Amino acid sequence: MNKSATNLTVNRTLLSRVMGGVLSLLAMGGVVVMLASFAYGKNAARQSFDRLLVGAASDIAESINVVDGTPVADIPVSAFGLLAFADSDRVTYSVRGPDGTLLTGHDGAKERLGEPRAITQPHFFDSSIQDEAARFVTVVRRFSERDFSGNVFVTVGQTLRARNAMAMSLTTGAAIVTGLGGIALLLSAFFVIRSAMRPLERMTQEMLDRDPYDLTPMPADGPAEVVVMVHAMNRFMGRLDRQVGAMKHLISDTAHQLRTPVAAIRAQAELAIEDDGDHLPQRLDRLVRRTRSLGTLLDQMLSRALVIHRSDNAPPTPVDLRDIALKVLEDRDHEVLAPHTVVDLRIGETPVMVLADDISLGEAVKNMLANALRHGTSPVAIGTSCDHGRGEIWVEDAGSGPSADVLEKIGQRFERSAASTGNSAGLGLSIVRAVAQAFDGSVQMDKTPTGFRVTLSLPHQTEVTSS
């Protein structure tokens, strides 16, 4: 119950984080859109009402006539009809002569920027009408008559209420559309993220529903990111399954294989105690042979467990097979197994590099050599070679080797040949095969012109970093 609750909490947290990121992006985008909408609305309102101001000022300027050498303005109603669209705004105007003298209108509308005589195009400026912000425009009408020559300046102003209302209306409309679009995107993102996370939830549920001892691979379906995670989990479960399998085999093998030798040793020891003195040397000799056989069995069982453990836990490193062959020979274990057997070393001057674990390779080669010493014919040789892009380490004896039917069974756990004298545990070549499988290699057993050879072949590494 606690595990399920924890997983669900993690899923909700992941969803909330993603949704929080999406919401943040939408919020930042909304702020940018609002600022842009406000700027656009303000600019659009300014351009629209500025045109109305220019139209009104132009109408007033067109109504000016020169009477007895004096400009006279007959203000048309149409001029203020344009400004009536903004019914809540205040309006002011002024008509001034060439020297800035007020001819008609309000004195407060006098332009405050620059010299009026310098104005040749409609000129906009900001000021105030009775302490309220306003927008003004000044247009010029030039007269060149006999009794009057010069510029007449018409200034029209309007407060900003309608402009601000239009800008806010445009901004509000954009905000509503943006908000609705953001909500739609947020809901869409929620359902898309939930859909994308569904394979994770399904995988979590499958893991929770599994038996604790079920380490079979999980089905790799769903998005590519989930498939990568499932493959990684399957590889981990595969390694764990091999470790658990090795442990189970070790326990079952120990329970099954040690029962008979231990019983035999106990029986020989009891007979040695109860038998007369004439048969004591024979009893002790059998007891020693049984003890040696038990020791060999234990060594090979532990060796096989070590090889399987290191194949999943020790990372492969570049190894020179010549060093492995030389070390196995220098350990001199063969002198204990077969004191009178000659063992030759046949390695060249060229490195034979493979990517593997040196300890596992050493255990494999030791078992290959022990197998040749027990069942082969002297002399025995251990050597290395390269063949078709593969590094090889081999053990060869001068015998003819086992028959074809025996070759098919050799390499299986606890499989002994008919020629075995009882000292073999049947695990030697099984260890060699386990090492070969761990490092993408293979095991070949062939008859040669000079005897019988067992070869451990691994992919050859041509580029090796020197230490």
From TrEMBL:
One of its GO terms (cellular component) is plasma membrane. One of its GO terms (molecular function) is phosphorelay sensor kinase activity. Keywords: Kinase, Membrane, Phosphoprotein, Transferase, Transmembrane, Transmembrane helix, Two-component regulatory system. Gene3D superfamilies: 1.10.287.130, 6.10.340.10, Histidine kinase-like ATPase, C-terminal domain (3.30.565.10). The keyword Iron does not apply. The keyword Transmembrane helix applies. Its EC number is 2.7.13.3. It comes from the Bacteria. It holds the Pfam family HisKA. It is an enzyme of class 2 (transferase). It is found in: Membrane. It catalyses: ATP + protein L-histidine = ADP + protein N-phospho-L-histidine. This is histidine kinase. It comes from Celeribacter marinus.
